[in-house]
Amino acid sequence: MAGPITDFLSNFTAKPGVFGFPLPFLWKVTIDGASLRGPINQWCAKEGGGWQAKTTPDAFESQGGLLIATEVTLPSESTEFAEFGQADRGGFLPGYGSMQRTGFLSRGITVNLLETNTDLEHDFFRPWLVAVGTAGLVQHNLKTTMTITQYDNRGNKRKAYYFNDVFPTNIEGATLTQTDAGSFLQKTVTFACRNYKQA
After folding, report:
1. 2.30.110, 3.30.420, 1.20.1530, 2.60.40: which CATH number matches 23-76+105-198?
2. pLDDT in tens, 65-92
3. Where are the domains of the chain?
4. Cα–Cα distance between 199 and 196 in angstroms, integer?
């Protein structure tokens, strides 16, 4: 099976078609970011801090890159409940009722991305968050879709999740130090979404 996944995995083995990763190994992250670049730069210009989106994940992938996550934390599912009825009325316990399903805004999707030669954090994710902070959540043109997909050690899809109306809520800071040149750097980005499902 030809393609970026196979090409990526081929770098980890000397025997074609046989990959040395245990299961599970990595998640491929696909973000529909091409339509975001214009609105991001529009709202960043209004913020006045000099931030600009220089590239998008789509452009990064079209140039042969691959956006990979070592860890993805899915939102928990939660419903808020409350007691109904009057206390101390004949010794009966009050009833319980569902108030609302807790929204995803308070339960983020955390993605630990492997750093690439293209600094996607400062070239895309951080300007995106600046634009969201400037425009607010009513600007639907700053929301997009995201899919995370896991493959087995033969390049076949194992599982995937699709998120709609995605936007970033937090980007973890980084400590710049002299590190082992052979180590993989990671960047953590937290997203919120309207909903998600298995893809």
Report:
1. 2.30.110
2. 788 888 898 888 888 888 776 666 666 6
3. 23-76+105-198
4. 9
65-68: long-range contacts (C-beta < 8 A, 24 or more apart)?
Answer: 65/116, 65/118, 66/4, 66/5, 66/8, 66/28, 67/28, 67/29, 67/30, 67/31, 67/113, 67/116, 67/120, 68/8, 68/26, 68/27, 68/28, 68/29, 68/113, 68/114
Does pTM top 0.70 for this prediction?
A: yes
Query: Inter-axis angle of helices 126-135 and 37-47, to 10 degrees?
Result: 70
> Per the structure block, which two tokens stand in for 109?
């999707």
Residue recorded with tokens 């750093």: 115
Cis peptide before 94 (omega within 30 of 0): no
